[in-house]
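User: I'm designing a mutation panel for 5-hydroxyisourate hydrolase and want to avoid disrupting the core. Could you give me a predicted structure to guide residue selection? Please restate the sequence first so the numbering is unambiguous.

Assistant: Good idea. Sequence first, for numbering, then the predicted structure tokens:
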Amino acid sequence: MTTGRLTTHVLDLYHGHPAKGMKIELWHKELDGKRQPIRRVQTNDDGRVDQPLLSGNEMKPGVYELIFDVADYFVGQKVDLPDPPFLDRVPIRFGIENSASHYHVPLLITPWGYNTYRGS
């Protein structure tokens, strides 16, 4: 039986390299609308997380949210951001329909814009 997993990675388009050290939170949206925290992680040298954010029995259909600490990352990269920064914490809300599938949610980021998609 194939078990699904949730992964992510972050690419810093401003500097042209992986976003090492970005803090990320994973949340699950409950049926009553409340959000429950699942885990906090930090990206490695390759802008990825060392382990899947969800895998095996943790993969359940539902609505999830990744929150990327973009402003903190760019401050750590010595980028002169306005106060307040244009982008601070970037949330990406997405659905998992098939718990046996691989869901990859990458983030392409600058201090002024971002893009995401369902990767492979």
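For picking mutation sites, this is relevant: DSSP finds one helix and eleven strands in the chain. The mean pLDDT is 96.
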